[in-house]
Automatic annotation (TrEMBL):
InterPro entries: Rhodanese-like_dom (IPR001763), Rhodanese-like_dom_sf (IPR036873), Thiosulphate_STrfase_CS (IPR001307), TST/MPST-like (IPR045078). This is Thiosulfate/3-mercaptopyruvate sulfurtransferase. GO terms for molecular function: 3-mercaptopyruvate sulfurtransferase activity; thiosulfate-cyanide sulfurtransferase activity. Keywords: Pyruvate, Repeat, Transferase. Residues 15-134, 164-274 form the Rhodanese domain. CDD domains: TST_Repeat_1, TST_Repeat_2. Its EC number is 2.8.1.1, 2.8.1.2. It holds the Pfam family Rhodanese. Gene3D superfamilies: Rhodanese-like domain (3.40.250.10). It comes from Paenibacillus rhizosphaerae.
Length: 278
């Protein structure tokens, strides 16, 4: 079954006892905006997980702007809101699946197999007249037992080696101007990892903000060979996740996330930097 589900599918299952809906809304530069939006209104029964407080660890010299959370700590937080390995998790946001995809990736990395991303944001849900609530649900705590899949992840040294390996494709998920080094709006150094191809994560979306069909996604990634290892990065390991999700939906067998991404790469002064087209 597809990871991407529509709002009608969510509506039909939202009250089933093994389902937990997770609100992942977030706004870069406004760290409290997601929580505030959740408290104003959300899908009934949904719990809230924050990108920076729950789905990332503290920033340090290396590791990027949104380092992966400690799996033990995240497992405890998941258990606290009633999520265990048997729970069907439905994630949503209001940013094209950007932050919901981060939760999908993290749960997949920790061995959870039934995670879905709602293919329309909260605003579409609300505007369609679907039910909303301000009530914060009372959840029965559970135990989430992580079974980490390290093969889904690469580190800095893996990327350094991949640059020399023609059988590995490196994809940069940032918008073109940042990839080219023309307009770096977030990190202190512009450019990209040498050899990387640019696949802006919003390329997975239609003009109306919904995800493209599988045929449209296949067209978008037609220049990415399926028989190669694929390493995906972005600025901080978040917007790479929609690309990872899309490639996984298309059946690419070996897709890995460079979680530290560009903000980790440039924290090492000896790392090479490229600008312009590849």
């Amino acid at each position: 079954m597809s990871v991407l589900v529509n709002k009608a599918w969510v509506l039909a299952r939202m009250y089933e006892p093994d389902v937990t809906i997770v609100d992942c809304r977030f706004m870069l530069g406004q760290p409290d905006a997601g929580r505030i939006s959740y408290e104003e209104s959300h899908i009934p029964g949904a719990v809230f997980l924050d990108l920076e407080k729950d789905l990332s660890s503290s920033v340090s010299e290396h590791g990027g702007r949104h380092p992966l959370p400690d799996t033990g700590q995240l497992a405890a937080k998941l258990g606290k809101v009633g999520i265990n390995r048997e729970t069907r998790v439905i994630a949503y946001d209001d940013q094209g699946g950007l932050y919901a995809s981060r939760l999908w990736w993290l749960l997949s990395y920790m061995g959870h197999e039934t995670v879905f991303v709602m293919n329309e944001g909260f605003s579409v849900w609300k505007d369609a007249g679907y039910p909303i609530s301000k009530e914060q649900p009372v959840r029965v705590p559970s135990t989430f037992t992580a079974e980490v899949h390290p093969e889904m992840l690469v580190n800095l040294e893996d990327v350094r080696q991949a640059m020399k390996d023609p059988s590995v494709v490196i994809l940069d998920s940032r918008e073109s101007s940042r990839y080219l080094g023309l307009n770096e709006t977030i990190d202190h150094t512009a450019g990209h990892i040498p050899g990387a191809k640019n696949k802006f994560w919003k390329g997975v979306l239609q003009d109306n903000g919904e995800w493209k069909s599988l045929d449209e996604l296949k067209e978008y990634y037609k220049d990415v060979p399926k028989d190669h290892e694929i390493i995906v990065y972005c600025g901080s390991g978040v917007s790479a996740c929609p690309n990872v999700l899309a490639l996984t939906e298309l059946g690419y067998p070996d897709v890995r996330l460079y979680a530290g991404s560009w903000s980790d790469w440039i924290s090492y002064s000896e790392n090479p930097i490229a600008t312009g087209e590849e």
